[in-house]
Amino acid sequence: MFIGGTPRELMRRDPAFVYRRLIRASRMAERYGARLMGLGAFTSVVGDAGITVAQKADIAITSGNSLTVAATLETAKQAVVKMGNNLDEAHQGKVMVIGATGSIGSVCCRLLAQAVPNIVLVAPRPEKLIALKQIIESETPNAKVTLSTTADDYVGDCDLIVTTTTALNTRIIDITKCKPGAVICDIARPPDITEEEAALRPDVLVIESGEILLPGKPDFGMNIGLPPGVAYACLAETALLALDGRFEDYTLGRNIEIERVKEIYRLYKKHGLELSGIRSHDHFLTDEDLAKKRALADELRNDPAKLADVQRQAAAQLPVKGGRSKAKGGKGSNTTLIASAGAAVLAGIAALFFWRKK
After folding, report:
1. Domain ranges within the chain, ordered by starting residue
2. Which of 3, 102, 150, 181 is deepest in the core (most CB within 10 A)?
3. What is the pLDDT of residue 249?
4. 68-210+283-317 maps to which CATH number?
């Protein structure tokens, strides 16, 4: 099911415009026998991130953001290892989360701080950053938390950067400043790092949030832009809850609960779901691709002069971006405006339809 309209069009309208269409979609799904509906892309965060829809729909609703967080961190962990980094070795590793105070960003920060004590939180509003820092320090007393309203001052120190904020025509991160072998996990749609920008630093690994390989032979009923059987994590959460017979509202609102993320990860393991692989700008990377990137990174790590030259040349070729962000904070932000991965916005496919056999 789709809600017709581009992200820009939906952003211009009152949230009630989207609510009405989602509620209508839930009723259509119910007539087909569905008991659970997942919200995807922009629809998962518009307005109050599913709360109003869940209150008015007669079937269960989830945004899918709990599995999005779990899959993102699992993918990032695998990518960091493949690039030869060890984030927790002697507590020298450092991570950054851009869009830290948003729904997805904040829970990513809290979970990452438990594994990597050195963390940089980036978001536009200092008061929200301070509040998040206090939460992290109460949960993880040994965490070293740095706050910033811009990524530029710290991007060159970080081994892993998670960017959860979509900004249109605005550069969120300058990839030319990254350290060799850095991993950028770009959750935003459209991505914060373009393919052209990523090509300027082939030693830096830019990846998407984890896509999920579902068991069996699920039929989505449409081409969602992924290989057969592979779903975006938000979509996979809906399928996973249906597999487990959990026909209940699961992830709603902007305050994603850590326990919900851990629980959905347990279900992910229980039902044998897997990451489909590491993707970068719609392409799956082979082990050979990753080995080449790591070799480049190792070379630059051992040659500071060559690294400086590579950074200088990359900066000279960096495309110019201008204009103000239309979606300040974007996916995982305080305003939580998300652009979808296509011309239309996926409203969600009722979970039981995933297992229609071809």
Report:
1. 2-66+214-277+335-355, 68-210+283-317
2. 102
3. 96
4. 3.40.50.720
